[in-house]
Design a protein that fits this description.
Blueprint: E1 8-14, H1 21-29, E2 36-42, H2 49-53, E3 61-64, H3 71-81, E4 86-89, E5 95-96, H4 100-110, E6 114-124, H5 145-150, E7 161-163, H6 166-170, H7 181-192, E8 194-206, H8 216-234, H9 243-264, H10 267-280, H11 285-293
């Protein structure tokens, strides 16, 4: 009798990321856990992606979308094409530590009620050199839904491994979200399943000028879309978000937008968002100070 290791399907969407793709794929090939398949979804790249992938073609499954359709479409197609019991996500410019899959799958095998495993990361620049960056302290485990809703997204996409079956309940990535579709996805999974946060950095998360997350105005816009969406989806559920928590979260978001505009030197936009925040949560001293400073 053999103990066959469960297959992990690694979903790698890429768009004009030829510079970093080989390093990302090599980090998968260097894994200590060997039961995996690599699915590269080319989201309409116009650079030399095909030529840099040529040496890897016998080791990957390559799907060419032909034109740029966006991350939700690319990731969903990868999920639907996956043969594995588990799904792991790796952005085309990020890098895994060699033990990333082994430690993640070990958590699933020890905890059959867990639907998602994620980990800490370290920040690197365009040359894969360490760079300073904000990193959450101890990652939460268990029922993380409420904390993940109230805080900004602390789950790095390239650190996530899930049971494929979670998508039957939680659904796939939202095609309508241009940004923050990963936060939305983790929230829906966390509503139905427990999660485990591995407090060891297993991912090198790359910061580059091409990162979608660099478009701060766009991120803030879609963060509010996700806040509203998740509240409305689960407000009537037993473990959903109460109206009080929703309003407090919305107030915190307006205050964050205000601080963003304050840093950008747009005093008028900053004041308006501080006003919106105080309209919901009038006794927040920090926001009140910001508002009075711009009056």
């Amino acid at each position: 009798m053999t103990n066959k290791k469960p297959l992990v399907s690694i979903i790698m969407p890429t768009y004009n990321c030829a510079t970093y793709l080989p390093e990302s794929i090599d980090s998968v090939l260097a894994q200590t856990y060997e039961a995996y398949e690599i699915i590269v979804i080319d989201d309409g790249s116009t650079d030399n992606t095909k030529s840099v992938l040529a040496p890897y073609m016998e080791k990957i499954r390559y799907i060419d979308l032909g034109r740029n359709k966006g991350l939700p479409t690319a990731r969903n197609l990868g999920i639907e094409s996956a043969k594995g019991e588990f799904i792991a996500f790796l952005d085309a410019d990020d890098i895994w530590m060699p033990e990333k899959l082994e430690l993640s799958i070990d958590q699933f095998l020890k905890n059959p009620d867990v639907g998602m495993v994620y980990s800490k990361h370290i920040n690197v620049d365009s040359k894969s050199r360490y760079r300073e960056g904000k990193i959450k302290g101890k990652l939460p485990s268990g029922n993380i839904f409420a904390q993940l809703f109230f805080e900004q997204n602390f789950v790095i996409c390239s650190s996530v491994v899930v049971r494929k079956e979670v998508f039957n309940k939680a659904g796939l990535f939202d095609y309508e979200l241009v940004n923050c579709q990963d936060w939305d996805m983790w929230l829906r999974i966390a509503f139905y399943y427990k999660a485990i946060g591995i407090n060891t950095p297993l991912v090198k998360y790359r910061h580059s000028s091409k990162s979608l997350s660099k478009n701060r105005d766009n991120v803030l816009k879609y963060q509010q879309v996700v806040i509203d969406k998740i509240y409305n989806m689960y407000k009537d559920s037993e473990n959903g978000i109460s109206k009080r928590i929703y309003k407090k979260r919305l107030a915190a978001h307006y205050s964050k937008i205000g601080r963003h505009y304050m840093r950008m030197g747009d005093a008028s936009a900053a004041k308006e968002n501080f006003r919106l925040s105080l309209k919901i949560d009038p006794i927040n001293i920090r926001t009140l100070r910001y508002y009075l400073f711009h009056s």
